[in-house]
Design goal:
The structure is a single chain. Helix content is about 40%, strand content about 20%. The radius of gyration is 18 Å and the shape is globular. The protein has about 230 residues and is an alpha/beta fold. Strands 2-5-1-6-10 form a 5-stranded parallel sheet, sandwiched between helices. A 3-stranded antiparallel sheet has the order 8-7-9. The chain has a two-stranded antiparallel sheet with strand order 3-4. It is built from 9 helices and 10 strands. Strand 3 and strand 4 form a beta hairpin.
């Protein structure tokens, strides 16, 4: 594969379970710096959030969005760390921004760093598909392979296809109650980002109900990866 490396940023938009993280994983080895807020927060799950009197993991497990100022500080710190790791800076933002306030903050930070947003991919998918993807997913505790009890279960029950292990991990926020809260938060606070980036002329809609390979080909074509 060939990608024309230059300094720019990509924003991934869409509800939980729309496949953003899967597509980001395809780009990791091509020179892209991934800013995954979910991964950053899970690695700091015991941190107490100022003003909420709760830990990061407690808030995430309930499906609530965290305070804008807290998230923005986390993202800025992670970006600056990644900027020091090489001379090519192609950022993918997965799980950020989630509010218009966060999007305006990101614009300001990227302007300061002279890194333009080139694409804002909007992963369009129905709530029904999201529920099946989220409430059914689990991963192998040994090798990390991801499965879904509705869509792509293990070939042999409770045995990983890749490594043969029999222990699996279910994320604490991958449950129906939490997902309902997360979707409600998405439609109230994150959905307006579609119009925000459309007005900037950066929005590209993606049919996220297609297979991950079909979605990958569409994104790669738009970015210019062959």
């Amino acid at each position: 594969m060939v990608v024309n490396l230059c300094d720019y940023a990509i924003v991934m938009l869409g509800p939980p379970g729309s496949g953003k993280g899967t597509q980001v994983s395809y780009l990791v080895d091509l020179g892209f710096h991934v800013v995954s807020v979910g991964d950053i927060l899970r690695s700091n799950g015991d941190t107490v959030i100022p003003g909420l009197n709760a830990t990061v993991m407690d808030a995430m497990s309930s499906g609530m969005l965290l305070p804008d100022d807290f998230i923005c500080d986390v993202v800025r710190s992670d970006m600056l760390n990644k900027l020091s790791s090489g001379d090519k800076h192609i950022f993918i933002f997965d799980g950020f921004p989630r509010t218009v306030v966060q999007a305006e903050y990101l614009n300001a930070v990227l302007k300061e760093l002279s890194i333009p947003i080139k694409y804002a991919f909007n992963f369009d998918v129905s709530d029904d598909i999201v529920f099946r993807r989220i409430t059914g997913r689990f991963s192998c505790a040994s090798c990390g392979r991801i499965y879904n009890k509705f869509l792509c279960n293990t070939k042999i029950e409770n045995v990983c296809d890749s490594c043969g292990a029999s222990e699996f991990i279910f994320r604490s926020d991958d449950n129906e109650e939490s997902l309902k809260t997360r979707l409600s938060q998405y439609y109230e606070k994150s959905k307006p980002l579609v119009s925000f980036y459309q007005e900037m002329g950066l929005l590209f809609n993606i049919n996220a109900s297609l297979s991950s390979d079909d979605v990958r080909r569409e994104i790669f074509s738009k970015i210019g990866i062959s």
